[in-house]
Amino acid sequence: MSREQKMLPLVILDVQDAIDQPVWTDKNNPHYLDVICKLLAHWRAENRPVIHVKHNEATPTSSYHIHGPWNAIKQEVVPLPDEPVITKEQNCAFINTDLDKTLKEIGASGFVLTGVVIHNSMDATIRAGKALRYRIILPRDATTAVPVRSPSGESWDARTVFEMTLAILGSEYADVTHSSELLK
User: Fold this and answer.
1) The 135-139 sheet, strands edge to edge
2) Residue pair 127/121 in contact by the 8 Å Cβ criterion
3) Helix (H, G, I), strand (E, B) or coil at 165
4) 175 vs 167: CA distance, rounded Å
5) Closest C-alpha among 141, 139, 160, 138 to residue 149
6) pLDDT over 90, % of the chain
7) CATH superfamily of 3-182
8) How far is residue 176's CA from residue 120's CA, in Å, rounded to a whole number?
9) Which of 18, 77, 149, 167 could form a disulfide with 155 if both were Cys (CB 3.0 to 4.6 A apart)?
């Protein structure tokens, strides 16, 4: 791992109790949280920066609703007192948040992104981050997808959604890797 990679913060996106609600079932990678926990423990052990992003959805029917019972960050990745928590109200972690400012304050030219789900907030955050000229490393085993259904009724299973999204993001927007490469 290069010196530059050692300085990259770990960003944990939308890993909240909401992700365990029925709307998010049939994940292609049910072990994504275990991988995030391993990465988090590694980052903390090496005293590397960790940033948490918490989604506070205004829509009352959302599992991520700001005042809903499942809005809390999952206990497995609960932030330490010195780890910043960025709150967002949109799918993208850069829109109307302090993420860009926080990354700049710590001198980060990029970040390692983990969280949920790859074809929603992860995708939006990666594309915006790339537009802001950040280098984004995406460990494929530290995220997941769920099935997608189109308005016309066509549907795609979670594995297809996952692989297609990674292919698109990896072609231009992020360095797709495996957590084992980051833990070396």
Assistant:
1) 85-88, 50-55, 10-13, 110-115, 135-139, 175-177
2) no
3) helix
4) 11
5) 160
6) 93
7) Isochorismatase-like (3.40.50.850)
8) 17
9) 149
State the amino acid at position 183 in one-letter form.
L
| Dist CA 42 CA 50 (whole Å) | 11
* Residue recorded with tokens 């001198």: 107
Domain boundaries, the chain: 3-182
Q: What is the torsional sign of CA 56, 61, 67, 70?
A: negative
Give the residue ranges of DSSP H helices in the chain: 3-7, 32-45, 99-105, 123-131, 158-172, 179-182
Structure confidence by residue, pLDDT tens digits, 61-114: 999 999 999 999 999 999 999 999 999 999 999 999 999 999 999 999 999 999
Which two tokens mark 145?
């997808």
Per-residue DSSP letter, 14: S
